[in-house]
Write a structure and sequence with these properties.
heterodimer; A: about 70 residues; mainly alpha; 434 Repressor (Amino-terminal Domain); B: about 220 residues; four-stranded antiparallel β-sheet; two-stranded antiparallel ribbon; 6 strands; elongated
């Protein structure tokens, strides 16, 4: 059951702005590199609040900075 | 319950059903060509009062010891007793008598074939390790109905034929009027319905778990 969505993740932009790599972000958040890669490449279909909180804490941003709807 | 032997069992059941139904049709058609010849049917015997032995009289011959002894009467009329039943045979049969007296194999065969065709996909799903495939519960429900209806119907035509023959030959006074409906097939059908309900619950759980797995795909 695949449902179309228009949510775009801006993790790559935030990582670049902060000079971080996926591996470093993984170490900071405890989220696996595989899952971060899924998010970064817009292959994610759902995000746990715990994941979102960890990402926002590590990147010092808000959920709206991470995602937008196109 | 997986493996190729389950699939072979499913095919065997269908083959038996096809043979049974074909024999039933042949037997039925053959019976219709025997109109006015001899016809056999079973009738129930009951005493005319509240209790005691029942006495059945054949035209021209009275059974010496109630209905416990087989006897032959004139004009090819004969009777063979067993446990309150008489297997009667009479000449001069009519088409409805022949049809009813020989419908047992047809009804049983067609019912078996229908049940085998319905249960085959269920057995195939079992052999593939997916017992709760969508539609199996509905098929098992139909099998339950088939078992109950066929089980009830199979003995009825012969009894109806017996009543008609008894009426025609003048034996009806000592015979039970009406037919006996067997209850065991209804219990069997209810049991199969319970299995169908279990399969329905299994189907729902399988569907829910599949949906849950789909939801988890891409969850980070």
């Amino acid at each position: 059951m695949t449902e179309e969505h228009r949510v775009v993740c801006h993790l790559d932009r935030l990582l670049a702005a902060r000079g971080l790599t996926l591996v470093q972000l993984s170490a900071l958040t405890g989220i696996t590199v595989v899952n971060l890669s899924v998010l970064k490449n817009d292959r994610g279909r759902a995000v746990r609040f715990s994941t979102l909180t960890a990402l926002c804490d590590a990147l010092a941003c808000q959920p709206g900075d991470l995602f937008s709807v196109h | 319950m997986t493996g190729p032997w389950v699939r072979r069992l499913a095919n065997l059941l269908v083959a038996i059903g096809v043979i049974g139904a074909a024999l039933g049709v042949l037997d039925f058609v053959n019976a219709l060509t025997q109109v006015s010849a001899s016809v056999k049917a079973t009738v129930r015997v009951a005493p005319s009062g509240c209790c005691g032995d029942a006495r059945v009289e054949l035209p021209g011959v009275t059974l010496a010891d109630g209905w416990l002894l087989p006897a032959n009467g004139p004009d090819g009329l004969s009777a063979s007793p067993s446990a309150g039943q008489l297997r009667i045979e009479a000449w001069g049969s009519t088409a409805p008598e022949q049809a009813l007296a020989n419908a047992e194999l047809l009804v049983g065969g067609v019912g078996f074939l229908l049940g085998a065709l319905l249960i085959r996909p269920v057995l195939v799903a079992l052999s593939e390790g997916r017992p709760f495939r969508r539609g199996n519960a509905r098929r098992i429900t139909l099998v339950a109905v088939t078992v109950a209806v066929t089980g009830v119907l199979v003995p009825l035509p012969s009894q109806l034929a017996g009543l008609r023959i008894a009426q025609r030959t003048g034996l009806e006074t000592e015979l039970v009027h009406g037919v006996t409906v067997p209850l065991a097939p209804l219990l069997t059908g209810a049991l199969v319905l319970a299995v169908a309900a279990a399969f329905r619950a299994g189907e729902r759980l399988t569907r829910e778990s599949e949906e849950m797995a789909a939801d988890l795909q891409g969850l980070v």
